[in-house]
Amino acid sequence: MIKNLSVKKGDKVLVIAGKDNGKIANVISTLPSKNKVVVEGVNIATKHKKARKQDQKSKIEKVEAAFDASNVMVVCGSCGKATRVAHKEVNGKMVRVCKKCGQSLDKAVVKEAKKAKKPAVKVEEKEVVTEANEQAAKVSTTKKPSAPRATKKIATVKTTTAKTATRVAVRKTAPSSGK
């Protein structure tokens, strides 16, 4: 039975169980049919190699052995934290995504985004009426001469990967004349 692993060859992973608990290293290979991974410098096993020809020498080698994939967590390249893997569809492709920061874990998708030369940041401006302006509007309804209302422009940034907007800067604009 072939399973889909959330870990791929070349990923940086954190070992969370076993004698090498706490080590961070790269994945050398994956064995999805056995649900195992081989990680660089982790789970070192000793192999005895017997000489097969007269001119060869017998030797003892230390090699990385496979262990269960559930004993590792993928380390996100952008936030640097060990994370679980989510799957999202981006540009018609299913992509592995960091659960903590939302960035893509697949290197091919990151390279494609850089090659596309699309602007990663879109800036939008919105006018917002402040609380002081609301109070001034209430006062103006009591038949007193009204002062021009001051507004603030808030520049928000929307990234292509984030769903929420982030406030960047707040600028006050001069009050507009009512004429």
Largest sheet: 6 strands, antiparallel
Shape: elongated
* Helix percent band: 10-25%
Strand order of the largest sheet: 6-3-2-1-7-8
Tally of contiguous helical segments: 2
| Overall pLDDT | 76
Task: Supply the CATH class of the largest domain.
Answer: Mainly Beta
Word description of this protein:
This protein has 179 residues and is mainly beta. The chain folds into three domains: 1-48 and 59-75, Roll (SH3 type barrels), CATH 2.30.30; 84-118, no CATH class; 121-172, no CATH class. 11% of the residues lie in helices and 41% in strands. The chain has two helices and 13 strands; from the N terminus they run E-E-E-E-E-E-E-E-E-E-H-E-H-E-E. A six-stranded antiparallel beta sheet has the order 6-3-2-1-7-8, with no helix packed on it. Strands 11-12-13 form a three-stranded antiparallel beta sheet. The chain has a two-stranded antiparallel sheet with strand order 4-5.
Question: What does this entry show, briefly?
Answer:
11% of the residues lie in helices and 41% in strands. It contains 2 helices and 13 strands; from the N terminus they run E-E-E-E-E-E-E-E-E-E-H-E-H-E-E.
